[in-house]
Design brief:
Blueprint (H helix, E strand, L loop, with lengths): L2 H21 L13 H5 L1 H27 L4 H32 L16 H21 L6 E6 L5 E6 H22 L13 H29 L6 H24 L5
Antiparallel strand pairs: 1-2
Helix pairs in contact: 1-3, 3-4, 4-6, 5-6, 5-7, 6-7, 7-8
Length: 264
């Protein structure tokens, strides 16, 4: 897939998502739309948030498509896309929270979120950011040793079966995937971000630990992919790391469910 095709595909996908979100702005559902706790608990929050999100995604997708057709570099495109996604997440959350709070003061009585549980997420965010910085430093050190097309996917035996350009393959992970863990960790402080996850304080700490371990695990795997593409390690190391990551993930999931209802 060429960089232009990738950019156009992302732009059109975002446009389709915006159209669907706007179309379902008056119909709460579990499949389409900007879905967080506040939008589930309040019809007004759902309507206002998805109206905003749908319109924003449509306008932003047209902007991205124009930048793609104008020949914008893939790195700048990804950074622009990431900035838009982060803005949509934060702004959408604020719109939903404001709509819920305004409805709460009116005669309508939306469902109440659970009591706020204070969890200090700063240490987890710092650890995740340090992992991201370590990956970027490694990528900078190995940059001149990387081929123009790098392996980005491997089969069960650890052999590469999909490739991409050096810029896309090396930077797509830290600039698109990794921030998801940071966002989940940051917003877990809000009781209405995911009200169905009725965790105790210890449960929320376990969730923060889970997202942090997942983030660092992916950093480790992608660092090995970098080293493989630079000719520093065999592909078998990647296969071993993926299996190790899966085992750790299963263990962390069991720990999360074990700790979710425990007291402080």
């Amino acid at each position: 897939m060429s960089e232009l095709v990738f950019e156009v595909f992302i732009s059109l996908t975002l446009l389709a998502a915006g159209l669907l979100t706007f179309a379902f702005r008056n119909r709460r559902n579990y499949f389409i739309g900007f879905r967080i706790g506040y939008t589930y608990m309040s019809d007004r929050a759902w309507r206002e948030t998805n109206t905003f999100a749908g319109l924003f995604m449509m306008v932003f997708s047209v902007l991205l498509l124009g930048l793609a057709l104008a020949g914008l570099g893939i790195l700048t495109f990804i950074l622009t896309m990431l900035a838009g996604v982060v803005f949509l997440t934060v702004a959408g959350f604020r719109v939903a929270k404001k709509a819920y709070e305004e409805e709460e003061l009116s005669i309508e009585a939306p469902e109440k979120p659970s009591e706020k549980i204070e969890v200090n997420v700063r240490p987890y965010l710092v650890i995740q950011l340090l992992g991201l910085v370590a990956y970027i430093i490694l990528a900078a050190i190995l940059w001149d040793k990387l081929p123009e097309r790098v392996a980005i996917h491997f089969n069960a035996s650890g052999e590469p079966d999909n490739f991409a350009s050096k810029t896309l393959g090396t930077l797509l992970f830290p600039l698109v995937v990794y921030p998801l863990f940071l966002v989940m960790t940051y917003f877990l402080r809000e009781p209405a971000f995911a009200p169905l996850l009725r965790f105790s304080r210890r449960g929320w700490k376990a969730f923060a630990e889970f997202t942090t371990v997942m983030a660092l695990g992916l950093v480790a795997i992608d660092s090995l992919v970098l080293l493989y593409n630079a000719g520093q390690v065999p592909s078998s190391w990647i296969g071993y790391s993926v299996w190790t990551f899966l085992i750790v993930t299963i263990g962390m999931i069991f720990r999360l469910f074990w700790a979710r209802g425990e007291g402080t």
